[in-house]
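Troubleshooting entry. Yesterday's outputs looked truncated, so today I'm pasting the complete records for two proteins to confirm everything comes through intact. If either block looks cut off, that's the bug. Protein one:
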Amino acid sequence: MIGHRLFIDHGSEVVIGQTSVIGDDVTIYQGASLVGDGSPGRRHAFVGNGTLIGPGAKVIGPVALGAGAKIGAGAVVNHDVEADTTVVGINEE
């Protein structure tokens, strides 16, 4: 499901997996991917309203990106991100 006003800037190589849920007013930059991890059922991310996903970022598996989160360029995210949080690099716990 994709919400209102999704903006894909320079859209080449953007991947949005089949079970992704994207909220309203989300921006996704070139080369970003919302990919599955092989989990049964929902395999892809839930992206909250107003989230920004930077160029080349990879969001892996059924993680939740809270409203207003910012995922930096080239970041790898495989855990939930709280609302209004900025993530850069590799998001490991």
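Protein two, checking that the full record survives here as well:
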Amino acid sequence: MKKIPDTDKKPILLLQPTSVTTAIVPLQPQEKKIISEPERLIAQVKRINQMAGELEAAILELKAIANTLNTQKRYPLLKCKHICQYFAVSVPWVKRKPDESFILTTRKVDLFRAEREAALLAEQLRQQTKKRLALQRHKKNKSGAKADTKCLFKKVLVNKS
């Protein structure tokens, strides 16, 4: 057998030892935090309610997407009038009673709150606009009546002299 010389060897650099001023702290496994059962229960309640909030947000986003598709006429694949129907929807919810016990129940998801709020805001803006226009007309009529009265008095005074 023929020996092949090793050409992959690289020269080894010898480093001079340096003085160490601080020691490296060895890694320690993290101690598990001991949680009592009541704390675990409260944490689980918070988790369920947080997930319910996220689920509600996802449902409302689904409705927004469906509404967008309903308003766009570019989708010939949608042969129905509305792409999504809505029934009463609720999400799980945990309530705390005054005696510190919990109730696992449901909370309704108000799918049409945004539409009601928009309609209410539109109505409030219409009322404000009507009031502002009425006030402007009233001021205009008042100033116009004063001008007419002044002209009338001037004419009377001019005619008498």
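Both blocks look complete. Sanity check on protein two: The chain has a mean pLDDT of 80.
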